[in-house]
Amino acid sequence: MKETNLIVMDLRQFLMCLSLCTAFALSKPTEKKDRVHHEPQLSDKVHNDAQSFDYDHDAFLGAEEAKTFDQLTPEESKERLGMIVDKVDTDKDGFVMEGELKSWIKHAQKKYIYDNVENQWQELDVNQDGLISDEYRIGSYGIHLDDPDPVDEFNYQQVMVRDKRRFQMANKDGDLIATKEEFTAFLHPEEYDYMKDVIVQETMEDIDKNSDGFIDLEEYIGDMYSHNGKADEPEWVKTEREQFVEFRDKNHDGKMDKEETKDWILPSDYDHAEAEARHLVYESDQNKDGKLTKEEIVDKYDLFVGSQATDFGEALVRHDEF
């Protein structure tokens, strides 16, 4: 009995992890729910290189890593930065391209995601072969795989169908055996362009209560707010009604289709990582050939890490799979 309770607790934790990007369909919020996936700022520092490179340090290392800066000599900073450059250069051609720098920055900014993935991976890759197939289903659902009835507040069969579909979409090569990168896309689809359609589909399934393939005004409001017998709506609800009519429902047919839903929850925000990567390349590219050598980056070490450098040991371990 004790083992069964532990399995159920582990399963609930796993499902809560999945709910980071999609809300439970069974929940009925009483306060505003934000389903929009906003691109976060790279730093809360002012981006003004004339004053300091603090913003660039946060962007390149991640704000938490940047906080751990310790007193190092310029020589030590350059040596450790050179080690990081080897990690940023993923194709090992001796150059850091803007795209590689952008990917590194995004990775550094998403430490909590990769920590979460690593924890799940350690638990689910039971045979330790560096791949996950049905292990995620067995490790996550266990005794509930053959149970058609809901347990407590969860309908495991419904969740398993959704997870199977998402797992298949995350698995790019179609072999249904996930690498760590594909498993990351499964757990955090909002981080991958090719997974955006599944985010839209799951969101519509949550909100579209009459299952007609659209989200009408009342379904849209009902996902954010429950009247609970109250006659008067808060001012923000009235504003959301106006937003739906004026901006969400672009063709003004009274409902949102898939494309309109996608525009709502996945807006085309300014890409901060791309802009910062472009900035770092521009400032460091001495011969203006559009790519950076290790020497060019190390020569501008103060832009990337400053005269104080972080605990790179942890950064290198964390990015070892990058």
TrEMBL record:
Cross-referenced SMART domains: EFh
Organism of origin: Microcebus murinus (Gray mouse lemur)
Family, as annotated: Belongs to the CREC family.
SUPFAM superfamilies per record: EF-hand (SSF47473)
Single GO term (MF): calcium ion binding
Gene: CALU
Main location: endoplasmic reticulum
Keyword Repeat: yes
Signal peptide, first to last residue: 1-27
Record-linked Pfam families: EF-hand_5 (PF13202)
Protein name: Calumenin
Assigned keywords, A-Z: Calcium, Endoplasmic reticulum, Golgi apparatus, Membrane, Metal-binding, Repeat, Sarcoplasmic reticulum, Secreted, Signal
Compartments, record wording: Endoplasmic reticulum membrane; Golgi apparatus; Melanosome; Sarcoplasmic reticulum lumen
Taxonomy, superkingdom: Eukaryota
Boundaries of every EF-hand domain copy: 76-111, 195-230, 272-307
Cellular compartments per GO CC: endoplasmic reticulum membrane; extracellular region; Golgi apparatus; melanosome; sarcoplasmic reticulum lumen
InterPro entries per record: EF-hand-dom_pair (IPR011992), EF_Hand_1_Ca_BS (IPR018247), EF_hand_dom (IPR002048)
